[in-house]
Amino acid sequence: MSIQTADHIASFEPGPGRWIETAGRVTGAPGKPGVIVLGGISAHRRLVADGTGPGWWPGVAGPGGALDPARYRLLSFDFLAETVAPFPTIHDQARALAALADAAGFDRFSVVGASYGGTIALALAAMAPQRVSRIAVLAAAGRVHPMATAWRSIQRDIVRFALARNDGAGGVDLARRLAMTTYRTAEEFEQRFRDPDPDSRDAAGVAAYLKTRGADYAAKTPPQRFLALSRSMDEVELDLSAIRCPVALLGFESDRLVPPADVEWTAAQLADARCEIAASLYGHDGFLKEPARVNAFLEDLL
Q1: Per the database record, which ranges form the AB hydrolase-1 domain (predicted)?
Q2: How confident is the model at residue 185, as a pLDDT?
Q3: CA–CA distance, 159 with 167 (Å, rounded to integer)
Q4: Which helix (H) or strand (E) holds 109?
Q5: CB neighbour list of residue 160: distance below 8 Å, 6 or more residues apart
Q6: Conformation bin of residue 17: beta by default, left when phi > 0, alpha when psi is -120 to 50
Q7: Distance in Å from the first CA to the final CA of the chain
Q8: How many domains are contained in the chain?
Q9: What is the distance between the alpha carbons of residues 59 and 107, in angstroms, rounded to a whole number?
Q10: Catalytic (active site) residue 110
Q11: Of 145, 163, 211, 255, which has the most beta carbons under 10 Å away?
Q12: Exactly one of 115, 230, 254, 280 is catalytic; which is it?
């Protein structure tokens, strides 16, 4: 079966007389069902690995995963960021996706959204109930926990402080290091860094690990993009009563950014929802680090 990849460009109007261009990519076999796939703020249009680099959801999106391009046409996109002032809302992202779906020929489709992408999936289902057949929401909820906002507000202030000193990249580096401590769990760091194998990748210690993660992220994320997307994550306003399609939610017991109680609250507001809470060593990053659990969850839905 032929797997095809095509980039699409579309425009939408976030306000009167102002048009924004958005870019996405479809990977999959012609004629297969359409699925829009969205991740955290590090996600982008290259969902499935290709000759230019890895996909952003390995083990889940790709051959053999629940999101196999031999079974579906998969659409992912580059999030709107600093091009929408002062920041893009999740509804702006949903409108951009609807325009890309038009460009790609997706009339009716499913949506899989994790982390930030999960809130966008909810926004899209509320905005276009006639087009969305079902959605899966992982490590995301219909409301933002105040502690998550507190952590992100500190990260934004770090970046602004650094920008004022002409070191925006250094600010993004430090903000990402702090963010990693909120994504993961104390239990994981205990196992990895308390007494690491001298020959393991963790032998250099937790500070070296965080420096690597920060530097990698800062190398590909401009400060203004980080600030715009971070702010967008904290401005979630959703009419959950407008969602009519089936919704499956997967939360993680150890997730401190999106606690299980908020996932369960979201399910209770929806007309047709089921909710699962899974154990994970990896906290909020369970959707990235638990591919077997995520694949089983998505197979049940799709």
Answers
A1: 67-291
A2: 98
A3: 8
A4: strand 109-114
A5: 171, 227
A6: left
A7: 20
A8: 2
A9: 28
A10: no
A11: 255
A12: 115
Q: Which two tokens stand for residue 143?
A: 């409301």
Q: Half-sphere exposure of residue 222, counting CA atoms within 13 Å on the CB side?
A: 6
Instruction: Tell me which of 8, 44, 91, 284 is the catalytic residue.
Output: 284
Q: Answer whether 0.90 is exceeded by the pTM.
A: yes
Residue with tokens 């990896």: 282
From the candidates 92, 255, 262, 285, give the one annotated as an active-site residue.
Answer: 255
Q: Which residues of the chain have pLDDT under 70?
A: 1
Q: What CATH number does the domain containing 159 carry? A: 1.10.1740.110
Give the whole-angstrom CA distance, residue 83 versus residue 69.
Answer: 31
- 112 and 136 inside one domain: yes
At residue 251, the pLDDT reads: 99
The 10s digit of each residue's pLDDT in 172-216 is: 999 999 999 999 999 999 999 998 887 777 777 999 999 999 999
Residue 56's CATH number? 3.40.50.1820
For residues 84 and 228, is the Cβ–Cβ distance under 8 A? yes
pLDDT on residue 1: 65
Write out pLDDT tens, residues 10-25.
998 877 778 899 999 9
Residue ranges making up the domain that contains 15: 4-143+236-300
